[in-house]
Amino acid sequence: MNVTISPSSLRGTARAPPSKSYTHRAILAAGYADGATVRDALWSADTRATARAVELFGGDVDRRDDGTLAIEGFDGRPEVPADVIDCDNSGTTMRLVTAAAALADGTTVLTGDESLRSRPQGPLLEAIADLGGEAESTRGNGQAPLVVTGPISGGEVSIPGDVSSQYITALLMAGAVTEEGIEIDLETELKSAPYVDITLELLEAYGVDAEKTDRGFAVEGGQSYRPTDGEYAVPGDFSSISYPLAAGAIASEDGVRIEGANPSAQGDTAIVDIVDRMGADVEWDQDAGTIDVETGSLEGIEVSVEDTPDLLPTIATLGAVAEGDTRITNAEHVRYKETDRVSAMAEELGKLGVETTEEQDSLTVHGGESTLEGATVEGRGDHRIIMALALAGLVADGETTVRGADHVDVSFPGFFDVLAGLGADLEKNE
Questions:
Q1: What tens digit of pLDDT does each residue of 213-222 get?
Q2: Per residue in 125-175, pLDDT tens?
Q3: Was 164 annotated as part of a binding site?
Q4: Which catalytic residues are annotated (predicted)?
Q5: Is 40 annotated for ligand binding?
Q6: 91: annotated binding-site residue?
Q7: DSSP letter at 300?
Q8: Fold of 2-17+236-429
Q9: Which among 366, 371, 407 has a CA at the least distance from the CA of 388?
């Protein structure tokens, strides 16, 4: 699907979709339990991949008419899957499920689409091997397809913290149901740390104790996943909130209200402060869970995305509209997502007339030297690139066509309907 966006003035109310990060963890945690009900879950391409994995491990995921997920778990001991686990495009699924596979008494094979098969899994494979399992890349390059044989019983392991926080999440979630538990020593500074905070928050909600230590993290073994009253409710997603929030900041003199913006451990809540620092009129009522935003005279700022890699595309688009330079730093790990998001945003914004300077660990957007003009841009099979470029189309001169726009289904299936509901002038072409 291609989507063509014309300059628009937005107003109205949008609701945040549920958090993808929390939904992945909630589905798998319910799998580790003997069962649980997950309310307000995001049902997207990525989270469906995690649900399929739970079913292949011997659980069952039933999505009811109201969107609630009724999950029967495998009670801490996954079965050996009868088929290959296809994680599709979901890196979170692959990493969390790889550790779960190490608990099964047998061999599990995991794969994914072309993009996922290019993403690094080596440190997690090495960690599983150090814990007594067998874990290999079929091509010997640390990338999927992966072959994992268990069971592991726990122990102590060291792992880098600057490649993916998902390795730590995967080991903590699996470690709770091992005999010995798992102690994780970080070899390098942890990047994307708020995502591990999300994991710790969710584990606590499921009755599992895990903790930060002087050297990393630890979780005791022999625990059971039991959420209070057998239920867990997923909060709104601040990665997704960043798009209507930025849309209001660049294209709404009358104001946009975002509902479902309740406080949580998500690092991407930083987008509220970023938009405010750049000069938009923004107010977050944390008690009510609403954010109100209006367009302001945006000025470029410097922002580190060390802990908030998913915000880089949104910030880059804001920088394209702002006066002066917007410098996005500590960004090297953002190159290892669904695509190299640093280069992707530099190249695609360049097609719209935006000047940028790309370095290995940073992206500088020269808003004051740029004139946004409509063009055809490529979504690159990356939901966050697609949504960020669509925002640019709201204020570019002329029509902007985003190719391959259907990939928003990964995290925000109704994104373009939300934009249209706020008054965006857009046309979908199947």
A1: 999 999 999 9
A2: 999 999 999 999 999 999 999 999 999 999 999 999 998 999 999 999 999
A3: yes
A4: 310
A5: no
A6: yes
A7: -
A8: UDP-n-acetylglucosamine1-carboxyvinyl-transferase; Chain (3.65.10)
A9: 407
